[in-house]
Request: fold
Amino acid sequence: MPSVLGVLEERERVALARAEELRSEVERLQAALAEAEESARRAVIAREETVDALAEVADEAGAVEVPVEVPVVEAAGPRVEVPQWREGVRTEELPLDCARIVALVERDAAGGGEGVRARAMREHLGWPSSDAREQAARFRAKRLVERGWLTEVRAGLFRPRTV
Reply:
């Protein structure tokens, strides 16, 4: 019959070995997570740069064909920096387009709407009708979601942030 202390020592060795295995696995997963986050960050930047470039090209191409009575709106421009939402931060601190999107979504919710899509945002911002401009509005809204200003209740449907 094995001794009680011998059994406990064996349990201790097994537990320590398992803890070391898990510690190694955690380190591997943390490295993989950091790599995946960096890859996602690079993809976001590439996507945003592409959308902005396409919006500029669409605006330049469309500027010649736009009737004189329709106001011409400047291209989306460089990446928009959106501050993280926190108590006390006002929409006035957002870039103008983002503040207007938040106001539109809040008005929609106050009126009982189910949410706002990128096309309505593009129209509200007065941007010309193009897929690139609609994508630019969608990416602005998604950035507002990432920063806590809005929520995306379904794919492409934006509502005010939930408490």
Helices lie at 4-63, 96-110, 118-125, 131-146.
